[in-house]
Specification:
By secondary structure, this protein is of the alpha/beta class. The protein has 15 helices and 18 strands. Helices cover 39% and strands 18% of the residues. The chain binds one RNA strand through α5, α11 and α14.
RNA sequence: GCGUCGGUCGUAUAGCGGCAAUUACACGAGACUGUAAAUCUCGCGACCAUUGGUCUCCGGGGGUUCGAGUCCCUCCCGACGCA
């Protein structure tokens, strides 16, 4: 049986874990490092597939939980799979629903997300803690997770096998094992327990996947967890390394300063010849840190969500287009940017679209932000290939972090 | 001319004796990292301050009251009705 994907390292970044490579999938080759556009519900919000291509997107990540609820994986299967359903012919991935274990569980109704700056011990809440004001809608047991649909309240029980079955119906080129994304606030005893569970689920996901014919055309990535703890992260990398996954995801939510170290611990252990995907990471400084530490793939909602909310990336930092000062600023969003939006529109126009609540605001902004982030990661790849990574990183970040008043 | 109902923070509203005063929108700022998100949070009379305080404030003027956006008188303005 042939492998669904092939990963080739083209060049390594000297003195680091970084590398540039080619990841061949049934729907095309991804040049890595690469940034995947997030299309949770089989659409990158506000964008058509043609726009995605125009922005340089190579791969789209959709979501198991959301598509299972709506429209249902059976419908997607009858449509011929995600690619034909959403008219995206390039490579695709699906997340397993593991993130929803976190976002609809421990994080539900709370002010914690993928990267948490808060280190307030008040937030040291165990997953087991139940806040009566915000009853979580995902509850974990040793076998799987009960989700109460955020759409209509119906309860569904998702096991590792169920997640794989759904992902087989969805038909992405790369799928992920069902895991538990934990909060960075969890104490070590809970991380230990959750990690053991994630490892059991990884094994079950893999066994179930391998038992199906789909495993010849869909690759399965196992997901490393372990919170902020070095011993757990390393153990997780070792345990998963010894299973026959096609690649690896690095998951968990982090305190800001923990992300880079966790990635470095893990990637020093994971097999070098398999691709690694850092789940849900996407701010420029984090992308540099990921690439240097051996990450090949990223995905993040930040560029598209921020875009819809009026925040645009530029070489000199982020801009909130809702600010009064942009109302009559007739310059491009990001001077010198080659994207469709920057070539054709001004800040004043985008500002007007946002204030007028016109849909095009989200579209034009998403085009720019996705182009910006995808192009940034692509530039990192080129810098690895031509040997100028360190210089590129310094030049970019110096300018990006320079607090300029516009 | 008579009668009725109304005039409150940019706009629209709430308020029926203890109010710097409700709500929405607008406005100002901030947040957003495997999408419960075209969303959310905060601010929106002024000046000090650490909790808090001082002043100004509900069309104008006068009055009743410990206390008035709220009650009374009067004037101005608007809508409607009758002439």
């Amino acid at each position: 049986m042939s492998n669904p994907i092939t990963f080739t390292i083209q060049k390594k970044l000297d003195g680091t874990l970084g590398r540039a490579g080619l990841l061949e999938t049934p729907h095309g080759t991804i040049e890595t490092p690469a940034f995947a556009a997030v299309g949770t519900k089989a659409t990158v919000k506000a964008m058509t597939p043609e726009m995605l291509t125009g922005v340089g997107a190579q791969v789209v990540l959709a979501n198991t939980y959301h598509l299972f609820l709506q429209p249902g994986d059976e419908i997607v299967a009858r449509a011929g799979g995600l690619h034909s359903f959403m008219n995206w012919q390039g490579p695709m991935m699906t997340d397993s629903g593991g993130f929803q274990v976190f976002s609809l569980g421990a994080a539900y109704g709370k002010d914690i997300s993928k990267i948490t700056k808060e280190t307030d011990p008040q937030l040291l809440l165990s997953e087991a803690t139940n806040d009566p004001d915000n009853p979580k809608i995902a509850t974990i047991d040793s076998d799987g997770v009960t989700f109460k649909s955020h759409l209509d309240g119906t309860s569904y029980y998702i096991t590792p096998e169920k997640s794989i079955d759904i992902q087989h119906n969805l038909g992405a080129d790369i799928i992920f094992a069902f895991d538990e994304c934990t909060s960075p606030m969890e104490p070590i005893h809970y991380q230990r327990e959750a990690l053991d569970r994630t490892h059991r689920w990884a094994k079950r996901s893999l066994a179930h996947h391998k038992s199906k014919e789909n495993s010849s055309r869909q690759a399965l990535f196992g997901i490393v967890q372990g919170g902020r703890f070095e011993n757990l992260r390393k153990e997780s990398a070792e345990v998963l390394r010894d299973m026959d996954f096609d690649g690896y995801g690095i998951g968990g939510s982090f305190a800001k300063e923990d992300m880079t170290t966790a990635v470095a611990w893990v990637n020093a252990i994971l097999p070098e010849d398999k691709p690694r995907h850092l789940l849900g990471i996407g701010e420029p400084e984090d992308l540099f840190a990921g690439v240097e530490n051996g990450v090949d793939l990223f995905d993040c909602v930040a560029p598209t969500r921020a875009a819809r909310n009026g925040t645009l990336y530029t070489k000199i930092g982020k801009l909130n287009l809702m600010n009064a000062k942009f109302v009559d600023d007739f310059t491009a969003i990001d001077e010198g940017c080659a994207c469709y939006t920057c070539k054709n529109y001004t800040k004043a126009y985008l500002s007007h679209l946002f204030r007028a609540k016109e849909m095009l605001a989200g579209t034009l902004s998403s085009i720019h932000n996705l182009y910006f982030i995808i192009n940034l990661v692509h530039s990192m790849r080129l810098a690895i290939l031509d040997g100028g990574f360190a210089e590129f990183k310094k030049a970019f970040l110096d300018k990006y972090n320079e607090k300029t008043t516009i």
